[in-house]
Amino acid sequence: MRFINPIPFVRDISRSKEFYNKLLGLKIIEDAGNFVLFESGFAIHEGQSLEQTVWNRKRDTGEPYGRRNLLLYFEHSDVDAAFESIAPHVELIHPIEKQAWGQRVFRFYDPDGHAIEIGEPEDRNT
């Protein structure tokens, strides 16, 4: 068995596709309308249709899908440039901060309230 990818539920697939593609720069490799797969293996799925598929029901509330209990982690080779490009367009959790383990990261919310972290690449060979 191997893990393939997380698939966050999103309320508005068009808005979220544009957010991840245009703002974060993730390249789309498959767009099935209600499901979008990006080159990195990250994917999003329109929530109501996936709820119907998985649980045979749709949620009719207007609540956001993000519950602040999941962090989507990405790395960028120039975290400062990523911050300058992304920060004006999102609800920031915090600007770039150096973490206890030495990595610099910033965090913010996507359109559905999912928390996203973008960090500088870590040297995993040490």
Task: Pick out its properties.
single chain, alpha/beta, 2,3-Dihydroxybiphenyl 1,2-Dioxygenase, domain 1, 4-stranded mixed β-sheet, 8 strands
Count of individual domains: 1
Q: CATH class, please? A: Alpha Beta
* Major beta-sheet overview: 4 strands, mixed
Q: Biggest sheet: strands side by side, in what order?
A: 1-4-3-2
Order of helices and strands: EHEEEHEHEEE
Query: Quick one: CATH superfamily?
Result: 2,3-Dihydroxybiphenyl 1,2-Dioxygenase, domain 1
What's the architecture in CATH terms?
Roll
Number of H- or I-type helical stretches: 3
Low-confidence stretches: none
Structure description:
There is one protein chain. The chain is α/β, with parallel strands linked by helices and 126 residues long. It has one domain (9-119): 2,3-Dihydroxybiphenyl 1,2-Dioxygenase, domain 1. The protein contains three helices and eight strands, in the order βαβββαβαβββ. It has a four-stranded mixed β-sheet. The mean pLDDT is 93.
Could you write a compact summary of the structure shown?
This protein has helices spanning 13-23, 47-55, 79-86; strands at residues 9-10, 28-31, 35-38, 43-46, 71-75, 91-98, 104-109, 115-119. It has 126 residues and is an alpha/beta fold.
